[in-house]
Amino acid sequence: MPGIDLHTHSTISDGTLTPTELVALGKRSGLRALALTDHDITDGLPEALAAGVEHDLEIIPGCELAVDSATGFMHILGLFLPPNPVQLNAKLEWLRERRASRNTRICDKLQSLGLDVTYERVLEIAGDGTVGRPHIAKAIIEAGGADSVQNAFDVYIGDSGRAYLPKDKLTPEEAIPLLKKEGATVILAHPYTLKLDGEPEARRIKDLKEMGLDGIEVIYTEHTRTMTEKYGKLVKDLDLLASGGSDFHGTVKPDISLGKGRGGLHVPYALLEAMKEARAKQGLPV
Ligand code: AMP
Ligand code: ZN
Ligand code: FE
Ligand code: FE
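A: This is the predicted complex of the input protein with fe (iii) ion.
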């Protein structure tokens, strides 16, 4: 049975395949549908949609937003976005400006700690995609401040590092309605990263549902069988949609294959059909 993949990244954020290459690989891999969900950016969607027409593969335009969370970390997927979500893009543009400002200020801090790390060099290292701490880590190594990325995070830019600065993020209360206004189906990605279990976990997901959350990622590369079963039950108990995807990033995460995760992943097309049925009931385009 051909499967689908509703969680993937391209060069537009931190993946290594262009949207066109990603779609071509999806087709070659025998997928029936593919969602592009780059981090905090939707610029790849027109290209992915065009490639979908060219390669005869159903494309679901999406994105993945990192939002504030009191526990662990929270990522929210918006699926079925319009190709040019104007209001969402304005907010994402603002977040990118904030990100650039944070990166600059981290570099300033590193300079004041005696390391020759310039924002210009960090930009060069980053190339096209989203610029962030992994690139700053490389610049720290170049400047002789650390001998590994992990070491650079531990000493300088990790959450308790000497040059650390927090990142501006949307709250779920902002992000979910923002996605809903664009007509998206809103999914909590890899729910286990909230680092909750049992009643507190169910309560948090219920709260998100009240903000407009439509579903959660039940099938995911890093989920154990127990987690998949737990989240499968949770979507039934809370009347949510189930989603599934690999979180494919190309060669930066070489052990994760498109549509197949670490080999055993299978996301049935029926999940997408259920989403479309729910959307049709809400009068949303499918
Ligand atoms: P940024 O969005 O600029 O804050 O960078 C976040 C990225 O940094 C994450 O996606 C991770 O890849 C990486 N990262 C965060 N914390 C660590 C850590 N302690 N060690 C290694 N990489 C990390
Ligand atoms: Zn990523
Ligand atoms: Fe994520
Ligand atoms: Fe992801």
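Residues 7, 9, 64, 247 surround fe (iii) ion (ligand 4) (CB under 6 Å). Strands lie at 4-5, 33-36, 58-67, 74-79, 185-188, 215-220, 241-245.
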